[in-house]
Amino acid sequence: MYEDDLAKVPLFTELGKRELQRIGAVCREQRYAAGDPLVWQGTPGTGFFVITAGKVRIMQQRADGDTRQLNVLGPGDTFGEMALLDELPRSTTALAVEPTTALVLPVWDFRAILKEDSEIALGLLKALSRRLRAVEQSQE
Fold first, then answer.
1. CB of 20 within 8 A of CB of 6?
2. What is the pLDDT along the chain (140 residues), one digit of tens a residue?
3. Kind of pairing, strands 100-106 and 56-61?
4. Are 131 and 13 within 8 A, CB to CB?
5. Alpha helices in the chain, H assignment, sequence order
6. CA 129, CA 54: separation in Å to the nearest integer?
7. Is 76 helix (H, G, I), strand (E, B) or coil?
8. CATH superfamily of domain region 3-138
């Protein structure tokens, strides 16, 4: 159902149509009003987000208490991929700047799919490896 949106996500570029359909089947569309939080820093990561409409402000509270804006995301942008792979608390807060719609991939559903489908796991590893290589090359 949401495979066209998922196909544009860098994390999923190594996946085929069947795999994207499988992931899309467990995604949920969520709507947020301006000012609504999508996630709070320090809370458990429960999902991965693909913004399909609207804008989301990504903010981080630093140890000294200051809050800084890291980014403003719009349609096609994603956040929360670390929650799919680890169980650490959210490192940022995400607030809707305007009415926003996002696809949410719940972590527990995604992990169940990974356990059942090694092709998805391998595709994800390839994409992550490519991203790490790009970071390494940018630091040279």
1. yes
2. 788 999 999 889 889 999 999 999 999 999 999 999 999 999 999 999 999 999 999 999 998 889 999 999 999 999 998 888 888 899 999 999 999 999 999 999 999 999 998 888 888 888 888 877 887 887 77
3. unpaired
4. no
5. 3-7, 17-24, 81-85, 107-116, 118-138
6. 30
7. coil
8. Jelly Rolls (2.60.120.10)
Nearest CA among 103, 110, 68, 66 for reference residue 85: 110
Task: Compute φ and ψ for 108, nearest 5 degrees.
Answer: -65, -35
Q: Where are the domains of the chain?
A: 3-138
User: Do 27 and 105 form a contact (C-beta atoms < 8 A)?
Assistant: yes
Q: Which two tokens stand for residue 15?
A: 């996946």
- Residue 91 tokens read as 């490192």
Q: Which residues pair with 44 in a beta bridge?
A: 89
Distance CA 100, CA 35 (A): 10
pTM > 0.85:
yes
Instruction: List helix spans (H) across 25-117.
Output: 81-85, 107-116
